[in-house]
Amino acid sequence: MEIAPEVREKLLGFQRSEITEFNIYSKLARSIKCEENRKVLLQIAADELRHYGVWRQYTGVDVRPSRWQVFKYVLISRLLGFTFGVKLMERGEEDAQESYGALAHIIADADAIAKDEGDHEDELLALLDEQLLRYTGSIVLGLNDALVELTGALAGLTLALGDRQLIALTGSVTGIAAALSMAASEYLSTKSEESHQDPVRAALYTGVAYIIAVALLITPYLVLDNLYLCLASSLGLAVAIIAAFNYYISVARDLPFRRRFLEMAGLSLGVAALSFGIGYLLRSALGVDV
């Protein structure tokens, strides 16, 4: 059939996208040990190659994959988990699926491919099982507790003590002790629930998430001079950590970002503001001047 030049350009773009995703899914499948996850990714890769073949019937030419896109999404998947990587990539394909449907009156196969891209791949992606996501609750527990408690502690200590090094030392000791306590509590809690999670892994995820948050929030007090700039930087880091983590979860688990981010950020900043006020009142009432 004769195709208008502008339609052919769109089809070539679709073709390039499909062969690019075929390469991404194939590379990821080769690097995954879990047989079930490998089968899912290979099935999606096969679908992408089939879609590429359909578009090729209309364009009559082969196209090369985008090496940058392959490199980018494979790297993201290996650093942050394959579930996050492939779902992030599929988010970017939503506009393409709408474009497929817009060509349905010209290309007979466009509507079927759009449905296949949407429904079938969503079903397959839902089958992916990654260890990191199984322990999301433990990570949330560690991060949320660290951010709420330590931002509050640092805000209170900033006004009560007034010395950067002393605040950093006190915050570090408090944070590490709390991390060990939270890890132990998560171990006992997971063990008592008799869930499919490993209590040791759950405890490690909670403890490590807590300690990472502590290290990041304490850093401004070790490298900056102005006390209130240290506090502002710590609060800014807390908000950045909350935003980054909630974005990760929103993509990997298909959850809403805005509500979760505002709730977690509101708790952390609210506790920090309250602690700052308490620190000021205690310092004034007790006449402490460190």
Structural commentary:
This protein is mainly alpha-helical. It has 2 domains: 5-129, Up-down Bundle (Ferritin), CATH 1.20.1260; 132-286, no CATH class. It has 12 helices and no strands. Helix 5 (94-102) packs antiparallel against helix 6 and helix 8 runs parallel beside helix 10. It starts with a helix and ends with a helix. The model has no long low-confidence stretch (mean pLDDT 79).
Fold topology:
Blueprint (H helix, E strand, L loop, with lengths): L4 H27 L3 H25 L7 H14 L1 H10 L2 H9 L7 H16 L5 H4 L1 H25 L3 H30 L5 H25 L3 H26 L4 H30 L4
Helix pairs in contact: 1-2, 1-3, 2-6, 3-4, 4-11, 5-6, 8-9, 8-10, 8-11, 8-12, 9-10, 10-11, 11-12
Number of domains: 2
Low-confidence stretches: none
Strand coverage percent: under 5%
Tell how many strands the DSSP assignment holds: 0
What best-fitting shape do the alpha-carbon axes yield?
Answer: elongated
Instruction: Output mean pLDDT.
Output: 79
Helix proportion: over 70%
Q: Provide the gyration radius in Å.
A: 25 Å
Number of helices: 12
Structural class label: mainly alpha
The SSE order reads HHHHHHHHHHHH
List its traits:
mainly alpha, 0% strand, Ferritin, 2 domains, 290 residues
Short description:
The mean pLDDT is 79. The chain has 12 helices and no strands.
